Each structure stands twice: as structure tokens, then as C-alpha cells.
Amino acid sequence: MRGEPVRYNTASGTMFASAEGGNRTLIPVGNTILSRARLPIPPLRPDCERKYTTPKNKVKMKLGIIGLPQSGKTTIFNALTRGNTPTTASAGRIEVHQAVVDVPDPRVDKLSSMFNPKKTVYTKVTYADIAGLETGSAKSGISGQLLNQLNQMDGLILVVRAFENDSVMHPSGSVNPLRDVDTMLTELLLNDLIAVERKLERLTEERKKGGTDKTLNARQTELFEKLHKTLSDNLPLRSMEFTPDEQKELSSFGLLTRKPILSVFNLGEGQLAPDAKLDHPSVALMGKLEMEIAQLSPEDAAVFMEEYDIKELSLNRMINLSYELLKIQTFFTVGEDEVRAWTTHRGATAQESAGEIHTDLSRGFVRAEVVAYEDLISLGSMNEAKAKGKLRLEGKEYPVKDGDIMHVRSSL
Ligand SMILES: Nc1nc2c(ncn2[C@@H]2O[C@H](COP(=O)(O)OP(=O)(O)O)[C@@H](O)[C@H]2O)c(=O)[nH]1
Ligand SMILES: [Mg+2]
User: Fold this and answer.
1) Contact (CB, 8 A) for 322 and 262
2) Among protein residues, the one whose CA lies closest to atom 9 of ligand 1
3) Is 99 within 8 Å of 73 (Cβ atoms)?
4) Which range has highest mean pLDDT (125-134, 253-262, 291-300)?
5) Which of 156, 158, 281, 354 has the most CB atoms less than 10 A away?
6) What would the pLDDT profile of 213-258 be if each residue is shown by its tens digit?
7) Environment class of residue 331 by beta-carbon count within 10 Å: exposed (0-12), middle (13-18) or buried (19+)?
8) Residues lining ligand 1, Cβ inside 6 A
9) Cβ burial, residue 379 (10 Å; 0-12/13-18/19+)
10) In CATH, which superfamily holds the domain spanning 185-256?
11) Tell me, what's the pLDDT at 8?
12) In Å, how far are 144, 202, 224, 258 from 148, measured between CA atoms?
């Protein structure tokens, strides 16, 4: 039985306009001029600010929202994006809604109040609500179209229904969050198992036919047999460690259980989070309530939250957790024009991280002036950080740390 579908005005036009856009950035060059005389630093070009288009090969952060039908995927997507995509199903038609969401970071707020810049920019995560084709409903496993979408994601957000609502049908007829997590994880696992078996069959055929690269075949067979063993033991592939070579081998091969996953328990109002012991992170939130709050004006939202004694939206925690899921870290650039958070891989060098800002900064990398966020905050200003020797000059190979404030000197 299905209740009257809830109708919302669609405003997807404006909402998604910036989904893939927003890639014009103003790069502040030379806004923190703090050099040490003994290290030669080439003079900056006179045009201190230039407009760049950001390069394509940057750290991607795209998370796909998956889950059983009617679990609240679109509701949570709307809460995340302050949007109002209709929560009614669009049967049979694959429809991907994407939105870019700021990752809340109190460090950015603090830096912004310190530098008073014209512009403050947070790091961003893209969420995709893939509607029309649902997981967990088809006997034949995940459809090719959906698989294709999911393979493009860097991580998965698994929405699990915990809310009770008689007018919202549950595909299994009853609400049982732990069973549903299990169903979904099994579906992902089976999908990978089928894919791995197919690959092993192809490798066997190749061997029989001969004429192919024997070493490549042997190497791939060994790797895929390892994958097969893990999956047969009912373990996700993210539990395995891969060598860089193996990672390269697998990079073009879509395997869903290799992707990091975050479970989101969608609670009804006043409901407590289920006591779940999962092999991956999870968060619980009241999806519908958070969506309604997100759709209010900031003033109304504040009044509402005060009235219901809601201190903070769990949504922010969910965004932070999904950001952490991607094994990335944040560094900052600061100045009068812009305070900005950037994303880089954990363990990335200063030169690689400079490339997140712009390829020219990476190609022409000379030095990075680096101060740790904690040091800058405790010392109160760049000048003080410099005076206390906390502002360091680092070279290309310096491994950037979470919270570093960087100023890149480039010869280009
Ligand atoms: N009571 C209640 N209803 C919810 C909640 N989240 C979603 N729903 C309702 O469940 C239905 C399905 O939600 P939707 O977000 O479209 O699920 P999807 O199919 O996973 O995208 C809608 O009628 C929602 O209003 C919730 O937290 N509480
Ligand atoms: Mg939906």
C-alpha cells in the first residue's frame, strides 16, 4: 500500500546549475609574502591575480546515494542540497540528480574571521541521487545502467530505512534496518562476485586459445582468484590491501565493494539509532525532519531548531563522515582576497597538492610556505607565526598534512 505521494515544487534547474560548474576559481598568488632571505625565491609576476580554470585530473569526491526503494534516499539528498527533488519514484527511467555540497569546516570559519577575505570557499563533495532504477528490487542483480553510474562514484552512501510509516510501503513488507543493511551489502558483494567470476572465465578462455600475453594472464588470474576468495568468504574487497600495481590493474574494473561506504540510518522523529555493529562507519539522522529544516530560511531554521531543541544538524556530521570516507585531507590557502579549503590525497606531496590549485603551480613549483593550522591559530597571526619560526619553507617532496596552510611559490 502506498500513501499519497508528497509533492514538492521542483527547482532542479537552479539547484543543479552549479553541479559541474563552479570550476572557475580565482587563485590568490602572493597574498602572504613571507620569505626567508637565504632561500632564493623568484620574483612573482606582476599580475598577482589571474583567473584560471581548474584542471581536470583533480581529486574527485563523488558519492552515490544507494538503498532500497522508499528508504529516504531522495529525502536525504534534498536535506543535503537544500533542494526539493520530488520524492515520488520515476519508474523505469534512470535519472541522476547531482549536487555539490560544501563540507562544513570550523577551521575555515576561523581562518575567515582572521583574514576577513572577500571570499570564503569550503571544500566540496558531490552527491548523486540515482533514481528510477532501484537496487535491491531486481532479481537479476544490479542493472547495467545503474552499475555504470555507481562505478563512477568514489564512495557510496547507503540509506537504510528505520522510520515507521504505514503509508510508505517497504519492499519487504516490514521495517528492519539491520536486515536491510545486510540485503544491500550482499547485493553489492554478489555483484562483484559475478563480475570477478566472469573475468576469471575470460582469462581461462584466453589461456585455452593461446596467443595472448601469458605473464599478464597469469598475473591477472592470480589477482582475480584472490578477489574471488575474499568475496566467497563474504568479505568486501575494501577489506583487502592492494599493491600499487594491483590497484592500477583494478582501476578500470568496476568493483563496488572496493568503494568506501557509509550507512545512514534514516530515523523517524524521536526514534533512537539502531544498535548496529557494522564493518564500516554509520550515522543516524531524521531524514525528513532534516530535509524540512534545510528547506527553511536560515532564520526560520534557527527558530525551529531552538523550539525542538536541536543543537546541530546530523546532516553536517554525515557530510563530514562522507568526506573522511574518501581518505583525503584538507589544506588551506589564506589571504585578503580568499580563504579557501582544498582537498588532497593523504600522503600527497606539496607539489602534487599545488596541482589541486592549478597545474601551473605544480609544474612551476619552487617552494611552499607552510604553517600548521593549530600554530597559526594559537599564535594569532602570520607575522607572529613567522617570528616564532612556525612558518616553514618546504620543498616539492614535503608530505602535506591535514590542516596545513600553504602558500605556493611557482616560477610560472
Ligand atoms: N516519516 C518519515 N517518512 C520519511 C522519512 N524519510 C522519507 N520518508 C518518506 O518515505 C517516502 C520515500 O522517500 P524517498 O526519499 O522518496 O525514498 P527513496 O525512494 O529512497 O528516494 C516519502 O514519502 C518520504 O516522505 C522519514 O525520516 N520519516
Ligand atoms: Mg528517490
Assistant:
1) yes
2) 72
3) no
4) 253-262
5) 354
6) 889 999 999 999 999 999 999 999 999 999 989 999 998 888 999 9
7) buried
8) 6, 67, 69-75, 87, 89, 163, 165, 168, 266, 268, 286-288
9) middle
10) Obg-related GTPase Ych/YyaF, coiled-coil domain (1.10.150.300)
11) 22
12) 6, 20, 21, 15
Ligand 1 atom nearest the C-alpha of 75 is 15
Q: Residue 97: pLDDT above 90?
A: no
pTM of the predicted protein model:
0.80
Domain ranges (residues) in the chain: 185-256
Whole-number pLDDT of residue 257:
96
By CB atoms closer than 10 A (0-12, 13-18, 19+), residue 139 is: exposed
Give the residue-averaged pLDDT of 159-175: 91
C-alpha 255 – ligand 1 centre gap (Å)? 28
Q: How big is the chain, counted in residues?
A: 412
* Cβ atoms within 10 Å, residue 65: 24
> Which ligand 1 atom minimizes the distance to the CA of 6?
23
Looking at all shown ligands, the one closest to residue 287's CA atom is: 1
Closest CA to 57 of 331, 363, 333, 323: 363
Ligand 1 nearest atom to the CA of residue 68, by list position: 20
Q: What is the pLDDT of residue 123?
A: 93
Question: In the structure, how many helices (H) and strands (E) does the chain have?
Answer: 14, 14
pLDDT at 138: 45
**Which residue in this structure is represented by grid cell 539509532?**
273
3-state secondary structure of 302: helix
Provide the mean pLDDT of the chain: 81
